[in-house]
Amino acid sequence: MIEGLIGLLAWAYGIALGGVVGAGIALVGTGAAIAIVRLSSPLIVLTSSRLQVGQATLPIEAIAAVQSVSRPGIAELRGPHADARLYVELRPWAAREAILIAIDDPSDPHPAWLVTTRHPDRLQAALAATMSTNKGDLL
Fold it and tell me: Which of 59, 130, 66, 70 is nearest to 97 (CA)?
């Protein structure tokens, strides 16, 4: 969508003011779009003791389960019958799948986190490995 707008503006200014101006607008517009997308995407950090998504932090021991969610599942979780307490960190342009992280902490106001990432399978595997390591430490 944004690529089309940038291309249209570059073409229009290129016709009116010359090819160099059109190419410059295409380059600047593309660079600005890439910067906006990168700066607006939350950083996901997983350590042995916590998961951080953007500014939100979740202790690993509070995670009850992790499951992958497809695009129709995301729509259902965000639809009219959705739980308003769900913590959501979505970037629809970045991923087709999300991870649903169920939380087992009575003091947490969120029953689960719904997080999109470009690599949901890698995040799910890393969370599972971290959770099993921490449970092994507790035994």
Answer: 70
Q: What structural domains and CATH numbers belong to the chain? A: 2-40 (no CATH), 44-138 (2.30.29)
Tens-digit pLDDT profile for residues 107-127: 889 999 999 888 888 989 999
Taking 50 as the pLDDT cut, the residues of the chain under it are 137-139
Tokens in use for 90? 């979505």
Sheet with 98-103, side-by-side order of all strands: 63-69, 98-103, 112-116, 87-89
Those residues whose C-beta lies under 8 Å from the C-beta of residue 90, and which sit 6 or more positions away, are: 74, 78, 98, 114, 115, 116
